[in-house]
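User: Fold this, then the next.

Assistant: Folding the first:
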Amino acid sequence: MPLVLLFKPTFENYRLIFKRTSFGLYFINSLIIAFGATLVGLILGLPCAYGIAHYKKEKLGLLILSARILPMMAFLVPWFIIFSKLELKDTYISLILAHSTITLPLITWIMIGFFEEIPVALSEAAHIDGCSPYQAFLKIALPLSLPGIATSSILSIIFSLNDLLFALVLAGPNTSTLPLAIFNFISFSQVDWGQLNAAATLVTLPVILLVFIIQKYIVKGLTMGAVKE
């Protein structure tokens, strides 16, 4: 095609991706899986990170970090075998659990640093006032770590939304995600650049909206601890 510098803007490609594909379903599937995997990562990762930081279990933290360093292909085959035997392929449960392999180590490793910044005297004062370790975690550690929770959650959602490998193997017609939908615009003979770029633009919208909503927490979380007195 000839290079055209002046052109007439059009929204036709946006209309076509919704007309020719189930892009709306892919969009909803991605949000359900990304937020579900992030929620699982927060429920399991926050107490884990607090315990590692509070009791100085650095080796356990490195072990959890190794799960994030390993290639996702190392987890894909076991997940595929387990979900095939349990007949859970093409379900939200399988993809949320698989994506937790991404979100859980990420949230845990990020939050260890935030919990280590909380003075030990605050936890000791809470224990003196009659709080159990669980209450000290809920009423003191979590409120003070909101910037870290926001930052780790956004990063987890981004990584989950961008994942193609798990969706390519574990998803089906009912649970296909946005990266898989974008991948379908690339065929053996051609690439539909118009619809491909329109779909890629729509994929970024959930993350952009989330960043605008909790922007102050993200900025505070990324800069916290950068300067030491």
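Now the next one, as you asked:
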Amino acid sequence: MLRVGLTGGIASGKSTVGRMLGELGCRVIDSDRITRQLFEAGSPVNAAVAEAFGPRVVASDGTIDRKILGELVFENTELRQKLNSIVHPAINQRQSEFLAQAAAEDSHAIGIVEAALIVEVGTYKNYDKVIVVTCSPKIQRERLRERSGLTPQQIETRIASQMPLEEKIKVADFVIDNSGDIGKTRQQVEEVYRQLRAIA
């Protein structure tokens, strides 16, 4: 089975590309969705985050309030590292289980892990191929503003907290530019899929 890492900057369009690859027949897991599950009330990760960051990050329904948590960690490198040390091992385990199951079901499957930080944490080395999704800084900021309601300062803080796209591109086997219309993105995705299918 071909193991593929899919990454990019915040609001670059990873999820859009992941969805397209899933429609083409790849098996895709979204690490953001894993995080939401880990933050649900009653999970060990939920309890560990609440203990580390205090009751203010726990919403009324018992889940972790990602907005409040984000405001804390995006402005503080030390707190961000503390959060990553709690969450990443659990995410990595879920990703490994997903890939193992995909391989067991189909040895010629293309298993794709969509995750924001695979370059930063070094797990990109675990994949046979890496796809990096990019878009122009202007569009990145527009998308982030539209979907999140963050202030301009919060947007800049979040972008600054991530590795520059230029650094991620250095480890990419494929780069998909998601700055244009959805049709152009789809054409690039289909070409990448064709090349992945040829080696899977």
